[in-house]
Specification:
By secondary structure, this protein is of the alpha/beta class. It has two domains: 170 residues, f41 fragment of flagellin, N-terminal domain, CATH 1.20.1330; 279 residues, no CATH class. It has 18 helices and eight strands.
């Protein structure tokens, strides 16, 4: 028996200390409701649950973000709805102004209300904000964008269609439904205002045709008028190029002489002004001589070359009519019906005996008859010399402004013989982008684009009912279509936001539950453990008491 070291007491003391520590931990869990109150409780569980807490808090915030986004979208959609109502009224006014019963004074009165309506669109665009931010972009497209837009309007209004109509009427030609791509060239092109390009196929027809337009040469642009500058207005230039496009799809184009191709293109709208200038600058004989040997290689591409081509085609037209034929239309329809034949064949077979062939035509034109014909032309009257007009056919006087009739028929497909492919373009700086934090992670982004709503972005900045009610209606239709498309996009975005809110809420709920399973205390287990610890504590205290008193038996030995 020993008294210096009481092993039983030490063991009981250690057991009591362990039970006391366990009791303390259990009491903490019961008090806090958490199974993990410090890293020592469950180091891995703590790390996992803390990451989950970050996700849960992030998802709660993202729900608030998404609800704010919904409010922004509703604000934007409400503004667009108001603008649509305004534009519907503006469209009514434009249709009223386009009616022929209205005088210029009437259109001015209508335009006053029209302009006030457009001003209100601007105000809505400027004043629609959310949390201090402008929702709608104010910057419009560049001036180049609007040149494209106005040129497209002019081409669709009547420039293309009326040019084609004249070709059909006076040349008997209609293309075969091939594609014709309109291409705007934004940098100045040397040598031409417009041109038709393409590639010859094996039959001599032209495929992959493009109508190239040098934007810088088409100013000013007035879509519902002749546009351009007197006397060579934009509609005359387009009619010239349409001759090339139509001939390219109706005959052995690649084997025809250049002077004939260009002369026919000039004759469709008349070129008395050019011819007079070249005669004054040189002489009639110089103009005639510019045809050279009549081959394409003799073509110089200068103004005098166009003049000799024009004069030669008018001479051909006149001589065929004098021989009893119908004129240049006989040559054109022959080339169309006999697509492997050349101009020589056409002159030999379709000139009503006026020419035995190309050599005979060339001899007559350069041998004095051509010069005499040019000398007899009236180049100073109002008529341009176009086919079917007063000078060429004793018809109506076709002036520089009336030779291409201003019959408005706005259409995306204004041609009968071609499928027109329009260049796609959009106004620059016309989008306001909102990046929405739609989740707990930095990569959880949602992008919402809102169109510009200024008059510039809608293409209405220069719209007027005084001079141009037709195009105003078209521009309003386009603007309403833009807004309808944007409202559809906003509606889709609102649905998307609503679904996103529901998904985030569900994810938060499930993540919260998962975090709870890791971190929350199980009261059934903890209370059972607490009862056990209480009993064990009492037992340990009793054992320690017994151990401490056991050494007193040594005193019995010492008595």
């Amino acid at each position: 028996m020993r008294v210096a070291t009481n092993s039983a007491s030490l063991f009981a003391s250690r057991a009591l200390s362990r039970i006391t520590s366990q009791t303390s931990a259990t009491s903490t869990r019961l008090a806090t409701g958490k199974r993990i109150n410090s890293a020592r409780d469950d180091a891995a569980g703590l790390a996992i649950s803390e990451r989950m807490i970050s996700q849960i808090k992030g998802m709660r915030q993202s729900q608030r973000n998404l609800n704010d986004s919904m409010s922004l979208l509703q604000t934007a959609e409400g503004a667009l709805s108001s603008v649509t109502n305004i534009l519907q009224r503006a469209r009514e006014l434009s249709l009223q102004a386009a009616n022929g019963t209205n005088t210029a004074t009437d259109r001015q009165a209508l335009d006053i209300e029209y302009q006030n309506l457009l001003d209100e669109v601007t105000k809505i665009s400027e004043r629609t904000t959310f949390n201090g931010q402008n929702i709608f972009q104010q910057a419009g497209g560049s001036s180049l964008d609007y040149d494209h837009l106005r040129l497209t309007d002019g081409l669709r209004n009547f420039w293309l269609g009326q040019g084609e109509s004249r070709i059909s009427q006076y040349y008997g030609l209609t293309a075969d439904g091939a594609d014709l791509e309109v291409v705007f060239q934004d940098t100045p092109q040397a040598g031409y205002a417009a041109a038709v390009s393409g590639t010859g196929d094996g039959s001599g027809k032209v495929i992959n045709q493009q109508l190239l337009i040098d934007v810088s040469d088409f100013t000013p642009v007035e879509p519902s008028s002749d546009s351009g500058n007197s006397p060579f207005y934009s509609d005359r230039i387009i009619a010239h190029e349409m001759v090339h496009a139509v001939m390219g799809r109706t005959m052995n184009f690649t084997n025809l002489e250049t002077w004939f191709l260009e002369g026919a293109a000039e004759f469709i709208h008349g070129a008395d002004e050019r011819l007079l200038n070249d005669i004054n600058a040189s002489s009639i004989n110089a103009v005639v001589a510019a045809i050279g040997d009549g081959s394409s290689g003799a073509w110089g591409g200068n103004s005098i070359d166009y003049s000799t081509g024009y004069a030669a085609v008018r001479f051909m037209h006149n001589e065929i009519k004098s021989a009893g034929g119908s004129g240049i239309i006989d040559i054109m329809t022959y080339l169309n019906a006999n697509q492997s034949d050349t101009l020589n064949d056409a002159l030999a077979n379709a000139s009503s005996g006026a020419f035995a062939g190309f050599a005979d035509f060339h001899t007559q034109y350069t041998g004095g008859a051509g010069a005499a014909f040019i000398a007899g032309m009236d180049l100073t009257n109002a008529d341009t010399g176009a086919v079917g007009g007063f000078d060429a056919d004793a018809g109506d006087v076709f002036t520089a402004e009336t030779v291409i009739e201003n019959v408005f028929n706005y259409s995306d497909q204004p041609l009968q013989g071609f499928n027109v492919e329009w260049e796609e373009f959009s106004f620059s700086s016309s989008i306001t982008r909102f990046d929405i934090q739609a989740g707990a992670n930095t990569s959880d982004k949602m992008t919402i684009d809102v169109m510009g709503l200024s008059l510039a972005n809608l293409g209405l900045s220069s719209s007027s009912l005084v001079d141009d009610p037709y195009t105003a209606t078209v521009r309003i239709d386009d603007a309403i279509e833009q807004i309808n498309s944007q409202r559809a996009n906003l509606g889709a975005a609102m649905n998307r936001v609503e679904y996103a809110v529901n998904v985030v809420a569900t994810s938060q709920e499930n993540t919260d539950a998962a975090k709870g399973r890791i971190q929350d205390a199980d009261y059934a287990i903890e209370t059972a453990q607490q009862a056990k610890n209480t009993i064990m504590t009492q037992a340990s205290i009793s054992a320690l008491t017994q151990a401490n008193t056991s050494t007193q038996m040594v005193l019995k030995l010492l008595e």
